[in-house]
Amino acid sequence: MQKPFYVKVLLVATLLLGINAFAQEKDHSSSEEKGSLKTEIKEFIGHHLLDSHDFTLFTLDEENNEHVGFPLPVILWDNGLKVFSSSKFHHGESVAEVDGNYYALYHGKIVKTDSEGTINYDEDHHATNVKPLDFSITKNVVFIFLVSALMLFLFARMAKSYKTSALPKGIGRLLEPIVLYIRDDIAIPNIGKKHYKKYMSYLLTVFFFIWIINLLGLTPLGVNVTNNIAVTFALAILTYLITTFTANKNYWKHIFWMPDVPVFMKIVLAPIELLGTFIKPFSLMIRLYANITAGHVVLMSILGMMFIFKNWIGSPLSFGLAFALSLLELLVAALQAYIFTMLSALYFGSAVEEHHDH
Fold first, then answer.
1. Mapped to the 3 state alphabet, what secondary structure does 45-109 carry?
2. Mean pLDDT over residues 324-337, rounded?
3. CA distance 39 to 47
């Protein structure tokens, strides 16, 4: 017996509603899954950018907190010197007990707590636990020491080779053109032939340090030294101190009492010029920090897109973008070292320039 038309319409409508409800439920679960995955990727990027008190090569089991690596020494000053191994933290999962005091890792920082690892918060949800003075040998500190030792070794060998030959040997053949470039195209044009020699050691050191440490930041070792603002601040303050303490009297005269300028304008401009001496190293610090940090964030975000777009278009596209950006980051690693060295030379040049009043 054939069913009436309205029954067929009712059956089709019921079927369509069921399909729509199923699709909405699937989309909702899929969106929840993507939202959770995005949150996890953001947390991973934030963790990747942080310094750490241990060196982890790779993870065997994230759920059971099984990692392959080695701990680093923790050195704290908390009513006395406290020295212990970071293995007591178990990668942030445990509370470390030292001489009756308890310490925990909170967002990469060591805070004082109780045996339960309690973290106290204020109204703005900021941790209020006491932070002891931390002089620990972290992962970034280890690589700063390693790069410093590598540079000392390479340049000592290069200098030694000049004693027996006019041409360097080995790695010195690669380093010599870069050294000559910094001397002939950065130091001499900006500082002058009369004064450039006393600044060459610093300019070479800061260029090769930033360049090598930036290149290490592109490796799977997870080294992010120059995206630590404390490191870029230390480099910038060195440039500022060298500029300040090697400046001649004409430099200070043009800051505090500019020649051929009305007295009223001298009084107005002097504070501005003095403020400019602090802004210059601040710009050095922020430029290096922001560019390196932004590069790491964008690269890690593009890699994270491979896990979000689980299809034949999204994943290869994300991989291609990440590969292209990695090549660009190789250029940025050298470019940031060049810019920091160039601007430092400009500041040194302005400090020793011999002005002629007219």
1. HHHHHCCCCEEEEEEEECCCCEEEEEECEEEEECCCEEEEEHHHHCCCCCCEEECCEEEEEECCE
2. 87
3. 12
- Give pLDDT tens digits for 182-241: 999 999 999 999 999 999 999 999 999 999 999 988 887 777 888 888 899 999 999 999
What CA–CA distances, in Å, run from 67 to 79, 95, 120, 305, 334? Answer: 33, 18, 29, 25, 33
Residues 170-179: contacts with CB within 8 Å, 24+ apart?
178/207, 178/208, 179/204
pTM (predicted TM-score): 0.80
Give pLDDT tens digits for 265-323: 778 778 888 888 888 889 999 989 888 888 878 877 777 777 777 665 666 777 777 77
Neighbours of 168 (CB within 10 A): 18
**Is the distance from CB of 352 to CB of 245 less than 8 angstroms?**
no
Task: Name residue 58's beta-bridge partners.
Answer: 68
